[in-house]
Amino acid sequence: MRKQKSYTIANNAPYVMVSAKAVPLGAEIVWRPRPPKPEPEPELGTEGNPFLISTPKELSGLQDFIGDAGAGMYFRITNAIDLTDYLSPENPGYNGGAGWEPIGTS
Question: Is the per-residue pLDDT at 91 higher than 80?
Answer without folding.
Answer: yes
